[in-house]
Amino acid sequence: MRKPTDMVELPHLAEQSEGPQYLALRDRIALSIEMGRLQPETRLPSERSFQSGTGAARGTIREALAQLESEGLIYRRDRSGWYVSPPAVTYNPTHWAGFMSYVRAQGRVPGTETLDKSTLPADAGLADIFRVAPGDMLLCIKRRRTIDGRPVLVERIMVDPALAPDLLDHSLDGSLTDILKAHYGIAVARNRVDIRPCALIRETAEQLGVKSGAPGLKVTRTSFDEAGRVVEYDREYWRHDAIRIHVDLNVRA
């Protein structure tokens, strides 16, 4: 963790003649991040320091910081202040690679923590997905995943125990894909992925160390084997500043 910096050199905002003051402050901080004067994980000066340095009202400063947060450039730690966000990892939903693999491939350090593992009766929606009867038991795995030690997503994975009996007896603090392949001979042949913005609320927000209502990204993935059976049904809730969606497609005339 880097210490607070005085590298955000701002003129007194009263000197800014055009546009809202909060955007002038946002632009200066963003430029410092873009130019590398503010490195990832650097703690920003306090709101009081910004106020004394720029002459801006506290509300103006908070608007600027909220704007930067919404863009994923900074994030807040409880009772600690504002920090520059680390670079987001790139995720390509058209390529199949587990979290551990694609994070390592980008020179980062992935981590997985199992929060809970249990069996749950399938509701009508899950029963339809897994083609089982409502009330049939499914395996439920809840995990938190980190990049360079920072929590970035929580997930709930559902698995049919008929495909992977005794799965919950394994340590799940690693690659579930590898466990399914090595111990049960199950390989994923196709993925259906749905991505949409969301708000991180209640327990999910707490597990990721953000305020309830903070912006996030919900990734829902249904994985199938070659026979068309559903191998996993996974709902991931990401910090919005931790992931960048990238797709490179050939366009056919």
Kindly summarize this structure in a few lines:
The protein has 253 residues and is an alpha+beta fold. Helices cover 26% and strands 31% of the residues.
Your description of this structure?
This protein has 253 residues and is an alpha+beta fold. 26% of the residues lie in helices and 31% in strands. It has seven helices and ten strands. It has helices at 21-34, 47-54, 58-70, 99-105, 124-130, 176-184, 202-208, and strands at 74-77, 81-84, 89-91, 110-121, 137-147, 150-159, 190-200, 214-224, 230-239, 243-245. The strands form three sheets. Strands 4-5-6-9-8-7 form a six-stranded antiparallel β-sheet. It has a two-stranded antiparallel sheet with strand order 1-2. A two-stranded parallel ribbon has the order 3-10. A hairpin with a 2-residue loop joins strand 5 (137-147) and strand 6 (150-159). The protein is elongated, with a radius of gyration of 22 Å.
- Helix count from the secondary structure assignment: 7
Largest sheet: 6 strands, antiparallel
Spatial strand arrangement across the major sheet: 4-5-6-9-8-7
Radius of gyration from CA coordinates: 22 Å
Count of DSSP strands: 10
Report the average pLDDT across residues: 88
What helical percentage do the residues reach? 25-40%
Shape annotation: elongated
Give the H and E element order: HHHEEEHEHEEHEHEEE
**Termini gap:** 50 Å
Query: What structural category arises from helix and sheet content?
Result: alpha+beta
Low-confidence parts: none
What percentage of the residues does DSSP assign to strands (E)? Answer: 25-35%
